[in-house]
Structures are given as structure tokens and as C-alpha cells.
Amino acid sequence: MLSRVAAAMASVRDSHEFWREFIELYKQFPSLWQIKSEDYKNRPLKQECYGKLVEKMKDIIPTATKATVTKKINSFRTSYRRELKKVLLSEKSDAGTDDIYQPSLWFYNDLHFLRDQEIQEGGVSTMDSDEEENGNEKSMDNFEASTSGGSSSSVKIATQVPSKRLKNNAEAKRNELLQLACSHLSRSDDPIDILAKSWAAEFRKLREQQQIYARKAINDILFEGRLGTLHRHSVKINEPNIEQLSGSSTPLPGTHFDNSSNTRSSPGGNI
């Protein structure tokens, strides 16, 4: 049980680390997201950048393509924009410092380099479609494409309600809820969780037979603990029992076990 919990927590943590690396790589390619960049219309350069992002994603999705990359970044940017809009709305509502909306998205700060791109003259921008040479493929720059059918109209922060199409996008909402759940899991600082993870790490280092013994000992301790019968001397590690001693032809000199108390005694009295 403990090993499964620890494995799940490690999986979430590793997933977050990978996507943060992916976002950092994306940040290094302003030709893909910075409208005012001189390279924004440089298609050969953008294709090269897409290729590097595809190779990165193949670390966890071997079948990844440019379309896979585009879809993932669209999802990230849509979720980020939604959180940013909530922050800006709370800032404009005369709320006190303590009442400013605090984003719950775990990658919100990682995408904060996009803030200026999302806010243009009081509105949340949308990217140009940047059609490919075949005239049909949409670029990841138009992050509205995956949620609003490619609409390029601006959404005013202070005066307009969020787009109904974004609200009704079930996939984006599921992603946001999943990200929120993962965020809460990754931020867990419960001392028991920390202890369990450290035990799980040590348990994995044991050989299979040793894991069997350890599992039984742990279960026995938990059983006695639930009954409230544990005490300071409950656990004796690698101490021979009475049967082992009675089967030996060479008894330990000057010592024996009291059958009634299972405590070690000496000829002169109890230790």
C-alpha cells in the first residue's frame, strides 16, 4: 500500500518536472509565441523549433508529432489565460491585497513569460493563425483554435464575460481539474506522507526475500498498534527465539529465556 502511494506521488512529481522542462524549452523559442519578434514570421525557423519540441515530447510520448505538441501547448496556454483573466478581474474589482485571486494552476508561474502577450491594450490577445504552406494547418500560436474554432476576436478583461465557448469546453475543464488535483498532491507536506515515502524508498532497496520479512514485521506492528498493545520493548530485531535455542546443542553460557515472560535472564536474577 505504502509503495503504491509513494509510486503515485513520484509519478506526479516526475510528470510536473518533465512538463516544466518542456515549457522552459518552449520559452526559448520566441518565434513560436512572441508576436513582435523578428522571427515570428520565419517559417523555416519555426519548423526547426517545432522539431525540437517534438523530440523533447518523445521522451514520454514516443509517437509524438507536431500536432501533439500543438495540442499540448494550446491546452497549457488556454488554462494559463483563464487563470490570468481571473487575476486581472480581481485586480480591477477594487479588491484588497488579500482578496486578489491566487492561481491554483501548478504551471501558472512557468508560463508567466506569456503575460505581456496575453494582455494587449486592456484585452486578452489571440494569436494570428499563421497558416502553413498548404494553407490549412493552424500554428500553435493561435491557441484559441483548440477551444473556440479558430476565432481571432479579442476578449476584453474589464468589460466582457469569459467566452461561452471556453466555458463549455469540457476537455479544457477536465484538464484544469486534473491539474488542480495534481497540484494539491504535489504540495502535500503531511509528516506521515513524508515518512511513508522515505520508508517506501528504503523498502525498494531490499531483496525480494527481505521484503517478505519486512512486510510481515510491518503488518504485525500495525496490527498490535491498532489494538493498543505496543510498548517500548515490543520490537526485538534478530533476537533468537526459544525454539531456536532449544534446538541448539550448545546453550548460551550463563543465560536462558523465561518461558512465561520471554525475557532474557541470568543465574543471578533478572537483567
UniProtKB/TrEMBL annotation:
Matching entries from PROSITE patterns are given as: MADF
Region (Disordered) residue spans: 123-161, 241-271
Q: Where is the MADF domain?
A: 21-119
Which InterPro entries does this UniProt record tie to the protein?
A: MADF-dom
> From which residue to which does any coiled coil extend?
none
Q: What is this protein called?
A: Putative Alcohol dehydrogenase transcription factor Myb/SANT-like-containing protein 28
Q: Which organism is it from?
A: Homarus americanus (American lobster)
